[in-house]
Amino acid sequence: MQGWQQAVAYHQRTKHHFHRFAASSGFLDWANQPDPFRRFASAPLLRLGFSDPDRGPPYDDLYVPGKVPPRCVDADSLSAFLEHSLALSAWKQYQDSSWSLRINPSSGNLHPTEGYVVLPPVVGLSDAPGVYHYAPGEHALERRAEFGDEGCVALFDGFPPGTFFAGLTSIHWREAWKYGERAYRYCQHDVGHALAALALAAVASGWCSAPLSDLGDAEVAALLGLDRDGDFTAAEREHADLLLAVFPGPAEPGGTAPALPRRPDAAGMAGIASRARWTGQANRLSTEHVDWEAIDEVTAACAKEAETGSPPPPPGHSFAPAPAPSRPLVPARRVIRQRRSARALDGRTRISAEQFYLILDRVLPRFRQAPWCAVGPPAHVHLVLFVHRVDDLPPGLYFLVRDPGKLAALRAAMSHPWSWDAPAGCPAGLPLYHLTTGDARRVAGQVSCGQEIAADGVFSCGMIAEFEAPLREHGAWYYRRLFWETGVIGQVLYLEAEAAGIRGTGIGCFFDDPVHDLLGLSGTAFQSLYHFTMGGPVEDKRLTTRPPYGDRQERADGPP
Fold first, then answer.
1. Nearest to residue 52, comparing CAs of 553, 495, 549?
2. What is the spatial distance between Cα 489 and Cα 480, in angstroms, rounded to a whole number?
3. Is pLDDT of 553 > 70?
4. How far apart are CA 443 and CA 518, in angstroms?
5. Distance from the Cα of residue 544 to its chain's centroid
6. Are 348 and 537 in contact (CB under 8 A)?
């Protein structure tokens, strides 16, 4: 069986059905709940500062290339970058129990994703280049490695001045503890959420981001120290996901970002890491574990090899610039910090058609701007929309084709005779199609594992991915890339909900094939990978909310 076939087999095995859920433990072993915070004992800890949420660019400026002037990379701007991508956003408390929330969302709030930065010397932080693990519980960097000036020059040679790297890794056990075999899926779309969070936090400082897509997992693991067996003797291992280059962007609206070399020196990166001075021992997150063979097998099958000589991907459809929204300016940092996952929706709140169309426009893949630049072309994921409460738009099923070139293939793949008409009043250039009119609340809840939250919002959606063909073309690792794309979409939807005065939540539990049956899809050409809903939130009055860092968090008076 080829690698891509193993990925398909795992996907089929871990589907939820009306009569059977994917395999899991069936209970929560609270005594072995994984520690949500990875730490490296004996690694020097560099505490970071905090920024004022009311300073900085307006949220809508994040989607205008070049609108935010670039800041220099120093301790303050780097702190803001991590604070608004991977940090804590609040603590919740109920009676004697408390738990943290983060800027980047996660399935079950379990947070399998770990963050790293690879830095040149940074003013106000460190004179030495090195590799740092981000500790969100402390909002601090743990210095894992130092390398000399010669290594720094070699590592960043050819990149724009001010470039640093941000890395993401996954600890699969954190999700498998609760979700069993299906957890690998959730880890991957969590990576997508974190990737979008990094890209949007970067553009809030006027920085660009681009994936170092030629690197393989082994090269990323070597640079981040994940392959150092002695540093993980009793600890759960981390799996390399990706490395992102972050660098200052254009200095004026409409400007062009500095050129980024497509092919970093993978072998050179690994060699620099091998000569670095490493410190730190990873902590163990659980005393006992359940082994999930299916996750181990798909992890091995989906490992990414370094790419050499491969042509760049086609840029995809070029969408016109997004329309300027007619709403009050809200600071980007405030929108980012207030993001929460709704636990229940009120079943009453409505939004205007203008708001709805803006939300959909924001998920169109404009690859020259954040956050789509961080995942790169092409777009493979489209949205089936269960519209419930949008003014001047009839309830029913709709479909957003995020790459208009795939419209014919999607229509041909669906056996049902949908209308495929453009909705009345839909803005020109928005590839939204009306499938059928009717009350979609019941079916939205049914296919989302019976969860009322999918029916009680203004709309919910399923993310339908081109599936088998990309896996055949690119190999099994692309299974991860498809989920990353869904996570990026999900993060944009989260923030758009906040900006619209409502709230969203990702839905990982859905009945896979019943979604396909609803649309008239068969086979594995297209598959549903992730669901999302948004609407008026119902707050749980029993919970107390506390600041993420208590007395230590002070508003900064530094530059925006």
1. 553
2. 15
3. no
4. 9
5. 27
6. no
Spatial contact of 78 and 122, defined as CB atoms under 8 Å apart: yes
Looking at residue 307, its pLDDT comes to 84
The domain defined by 341-535 folds into NADH Oxidase (3.40.109)
Cβ-contact 182, 483 below 8 angstroms: no
Q: How many C-beta atoms lie closer than 10 Å to residue 262's C-beta?
A: 13
Checking if the pLDDT of 554 tops 60, the result is: no
d(CA 101, CA 49) in angstroms, rounded, equals: 19
**Lowest mean pLDDT segment, chosen from 43-47, 323-327, 463-467, 485-489:** 323-327
Rounded distance between C-alpha atoms, residue 56 and residue 557, angstroms = 11
Region label for 391, one of left (φ > 0), alpha (ψ between -120 and 50) or beta (otherwise)? beta
Q: What integer is the mean pLDDT of 225-240?
A: 96
CA distances (Å), 299 to each of 90, 183, 468, in order?
A: 32, 11, 18
pLDDT at 555: 45
Residues 489 and 105: their CA atoms lie apart, in Å, by: 12
Which CATH homologous superfamily contains domain 44-89+102-301? NADH Oxidase (3.40.109.10)
In angstroms, the CA 157 to CA 167 distance is 18
pLDDT(349) > 80: yes
Residue pair 27/102 in contact (Cβ under 8 Å)? The answer is no
Question: Coil, strand or helix: which one is 98?
Answer: strand
Ranges for all domains in the chain classified under CATH 3.40.109.10: 44-89+102-301, 341-535
> What DSSP string describes 283-347?
PPS-SS----HHHHHHHHHTPPPPP-SPPPPP----PPPPPPP-S---BHHHHHHH--B-S-B-S
Alpha carbon dihedral 488, 491, 493, 495, in 10-degree steps, equals -140
